[in-house]
Specification:
Elements lengths: L1 H17 L3 H21 L4 H17 L7 H29 L1 H10 L7 H19 L2 H12 L4 H8 L3 H21 L5
Helix pairs in contact: 2-3, 2-4, 3-4, 7-8, 7-9, 8-9
């Protein structure tokens, strides 16, 4: 009888210890920060916006430690929050650009190309075209495309993160690829 109580107490302690503690959750966040940055960059956000999103993710993460059962769930949660914050930033930017087109136009005229060779200028221009094209993608397609192709997460895991069926993820990936390819070809990018 005492053995059963001891086993039960040990299992309870083991379950509690499997949950990420504050320090282990911070370690998970730091370990996944590279992946989170790839997600943010893949969603077409610039450096400053990316830092803001990453900082917001860390703030949200600090308050949600106790909700994650294990480190795998914590990683999925971090990815999901990052995608959602990126989508919110896209919406904010679209509202801003639609209400004040003259500000956006003046900012693009003031932009200075990086110093270097002509190839650097061409690469920077192509990168900006790809970012603009990604920003123009519908949010239902953007999340799956970025997670699959920028973070190399398979369709099943993307579905778990975005609460979608794997078949839905695959159809959105196909649609997203087709739209991106068409828009990039129209803008002169063929590779």
């Amino acid at each position: 009888m005492d053995g059963a109580k001891t086993d039960s107490a040990e299992n309870k302690n083991q379950t509690v210890s499997e949950r990420p503690s504050e320090s282990s959750f911070i370690d998970i966040f730091l370990a996944e920060s590279g992946r989170l940055k790839r997600i943010i960059a893949g969603m077409g956000l610039g450096t400053f916006d990316a830092e803001d999103v990453l900082q917001n993710v860390s703030i949200k993460a600090a308050g949600k430690i106790e909700k994650c059962q294990d480190s795998a769930q914590a990683v999925r949660w971090l990815i999901k929050v990052t995608v959602n914050l990126c989508l919110m930033e896209h919406r904010r930017q679209k509202r801003f650009s639609s209400k004040t087109p003259e500000i956006v136009e003046s900012q693009s005229q003031d932009k200075v190309l990086p110093k270097g060779t002509d190839e650097d200028a061409i690469e920077a221009e192509e990168l900006e075209i790809v970012r603009e094209t990604l920003r123009g993608l519908d949010s239902s397609l953007l999340g799956p495309v970025v997670l699959r192709y920028f973070c190399e997460i398979n369709s099943k895991e993307v579905g778990e993160i975005l609460n979608l069926n794997p078949s839905t993820v695959r159809s959105r990936l196909r649609e997203g690829r087709m739209i991106l390819a068409k828009r990039l070809l129209e803008r002169g990018i063929e590779r």
